[in-house]
Amino acid sequence: MAGTSVAVVSYVINNGPRPVAEATRQRVLDAIRLSGYRPNGVARALAMGSTKTYGLIVPNIGNPFVASMAHVLLQESLNHGHVMLLGDAGDDRRRELELIHGLLNRQVDGLFYNSVDRHPYIDVIQASNTPFVMLDRVEPQPGVSMLRVDERQAAFQVTAHLLEHGYRQVGIISGPLEMLNAQDRIQGWRDALTAHKVPVDEALIFPASYSRQGGYEAAQRMLAGAGAPRALFASNEGQALGAIRAFAEQGIRVPQDVALVCFNGTDQSAFHVPTLTTVRQPLQDMARCAIAMLQNWDGEAKLHEFPHYLEIGESCGCLPQAKQNATTI
């Protein structure tokens, strides 16, 4: 239709590598418009050895922190000319494995992987020779690259913040006990209590799923037992919101009756009443680093650790105007 060679059409569609006269270029574009032509992505992938796609596997996109991480990764991948395919495991290990196989079968150029639990299917990915980056802590292994913050240290700092208010009864809503990140956060909680010479009361550990429902049910268990502690560390934002709901149903106020802090806050933390004091992660920087790790993949394990920061809100009992400040920790 355009009266040109296939090569000239390719130069127009791909903006090179050779220049095309403007009149010829316009004829090609007119022919594309009239015919509805679209390049064959499968054929292009075979020719180029790249599908220009990344895969992202997450435990549950309903978790606000996971959704925030997925959003910045998607935007950053688009900045580098890649489409992101999302796999939501719905907290189901079997579905997670199906998603891994599905994305590998689509020949994605790389995977970002946050597993449902502490037993990720690393061997399956490694057998495919597909570059991948873990987005959560796993046991160090050859060829396994990872992004992380020091969650034990973050849990220490946020628990210490409550102790510095003068509270001596500080509980924790942890994640599921078999998960490494839950173990890290519990240990950081213990470290802070020990450093402030406060006895560690294991009865104040309330394991729960990383969800609003999990936080709600954990708070109900507290209230059905010895009652809510004077201060509480929730291991993620969803748990904090669920706990506040359970407390409110019993007329228990945050922070007047229970001071509360949480981990992995998102932008939602600043719009809750009360605003949440929370540990935040530098998601934009982490996304840029994750993309760079895939682009420069050489099969060697790499670990990139990022600083976290404490965003002060009202839920811990700090003055409302303090919410304008963020303390790097």
Automatic annotation (TrEMBL):
Protein name per its UniProtKB record: LacI family transcriptional regulator
Domain HTH lacI-type: 1-48
SUPFAM superfamilies the record matches: lambda repressor-like DNA-binding domains (SSF47413), Periplasmic binding protein-like I (SSF53822)
Coiled coil segments of this chain: none
SMART domains to which the protein is assigned, alphabetical: HTH_LACI (SM00354)
Transmembrane segments: none
Keywords: DNA-binding, Transcription, Transcription regulation
PROSITE patterns assigned: HTH_LACI_2
UniProt GO molecular function: DNA-binding transcription factor activity; transcription cis-regulatory region binding
Source species of the chain: Pantoea latae
InterPro entries: HTH_LacI (IPR000843), LacI/GalR-like_sensor (IPR046335), Lambda_DNA-bd_dom_sf (IPR010982), Peripla_BP_I (IPR028082)
